[in-house]
Structures are given as structure tokens and as C-alpha cells.
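Hey, weird one. I pasted the ZMYM2-like/QRICH1 C-terminal domain-containing protein sequence into the form twice and got a warning about non-standard characters only the second time. First submission, copied straight from the form history:
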Amino acid sequence: MNSKDERFKQIHTVLDNLSQKLHKNGVRASKNQAHVVSIAEEDKLWSSGVMGCHSQLALQNAVFFLCGILLCLQGGEEHRNLKVTQFVIDEVENPWLPLERIKRLTYTENGSKNRSGGMHQVHLDNKVVDHYANSSIGNRCLVFLVELYISKLPESTFEKELFYCRPVPVKHIKDENPWYYDTPVGHNILKTKLKVMFEAAGLDAGGILNHSLRATGVTRMYNKGVLEKIIIERSGHLSVSGVRSYERTTCLQQKLVSDVLTSSSTYDPVEVKDESNGSGGKENMSDVTDVPVSDEVGDVMKSFNFEAVKGCTFNFNFSK
């Protein structure tokens, strides 16, 4: 029902009044938000062996988890439609240390919920994310894990344009054999992958969805003070309002606001002192270069208190 349609105007008015009445009585619609994965929960996934590079499933879990957070992928369709050709790893100049080389992973989005590629988006570029390697975190580095994962895929996955493939049982793996078949992971398995990972690590899986990874990525950037422009570039949102629905304030931020508002200290301007002349920030007129002036001008100047004046220009016009 279009609220602008005169035929439904009366119905909308009744519903609007009822909604306002319920709101005043404390009855309101609740908004379901995806769970944000904490650092402690992530550490548990690593330490429990659910994620890692020691087995086919652990490696795939780690790639799935980090791609979701660091590339801010959509929870369902974008993960299912991933292709190995969307990832390119090369070596480039380190932005921080120009004399060094660093590995960089470039992910190019082929399509998503926000960028479906219809006629209304014909001039909209695909999302492209550059993620740089971080050797200090070892096997938790996304670039390292994706490179290892791709090296364990059969060559036919490039032809079939797959990414998440079914793991080969350990007993069938030999030295140089691929770790995965060239068949995609089932839709239902991928749909509940993060929830199953939480359960395997002994974590509370209530409210856990694959979309939690995207929400986690945006929230972590927001809490670290990353500019919204950069967040939007990585998440692929088309508007600021869209990305702000993912930005969750932390308890620490709320505590800081409480402390600011309840502080008993009052604003006390700090007196700026000029240490160069020891005059407490007040210009000592005796230090100013003597300028010859007439007796008449001198008498006028003596009538002013110049102790509190500094860096000003005065124009005096004396007429007889």
C-alpha cells in the first residue's frame, strides 16, 4: 500500500496513530542484528584447531572466516559465487617501506546484493579490495592462507571457476595430491559454516550467521577509527546510511561518554606562558625596540595599558 495513494490514506493514518500509541507504551519493533565476532571468540577458533593450515577443513575454515571479515563479503550469495580467478596475489612496493617488497592480495567482486549490475548500475564499478600481507601474524595472514589454499586446489577448479571445494579425505591424500576435489561445497554446508565452526570450538552459536563476518569487519574498522570512506570502499556499501547500520559502539566507548558527561571537573582555561621572557605570557614593553616618538604621542601611549596587548597594530591619528 502506497502511503501517497489517496485510497489507502485513511488506513495509513490509523496504523500510524496506533504505532505511536504502542511506542509511548514501550512496545516497539526489535531489530535483529548479526552477531559481531569478538577477538576472544576468534582466538578460540584458532586455538581449538577449527581454523589453521594443518588440515583441509581447518584451512578452508580459516580462508572462509578471514575472507568474510577482511573482505567484508556478503553472508550467502557472495561466498557461494566466489571463483578462484577473483583472487590475484602479486608482489608490490611496501607503502610503509618503499625499499621493501610485500605481497598483496587483490579481490575483485563480480556481483553482490549491493552491486547486482542492472541497468541502473551500468556505470557503477565493481568493488576491488587490496589486502596486504602481514608476516608478523604468521599463519593467520589472509594472503598466506589464500595462497596456500589455492595451491592445494586441483587445476580444474580454474576451468570450472570454483573456490570452496569439497575436501579430500586425509587417507586419500598423498605428497603432491590436491587437498580438494573439483566439486563445490554444498549450499547447505556453506550456509551454516560459521555456526558449525562455533559449535566445533565449543562456543555459543546462538545468533551466529555467515553475515556476522561482514558485520564484524565493518565494526572493527569503525572502532579503530577508520574513515567511513575507506570502510565503504572495502564493504561495498553504496551509502553512508547503509554502512552505519553495521557500526556497533563498544561498551568501552559508552563508558567513555559516561565519564565525559559525569565528570566533576570544570573547564579551567590554561594560562599560556611565554618562557622566553619569563613574563608569564605578557609582553614586556621595555624589551620592545625603542622607536622615536613625539612627546604628544608618548603622552597618549602612556594612557594605555599595553601589558595585555601583543601582536597588534595601532594607527593613531593626531590632528591639531
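That's the output from the first submission. The warning seems to come from a hidden character in my clipboard, not from the data itself. The longest helix spans residues 9-24.
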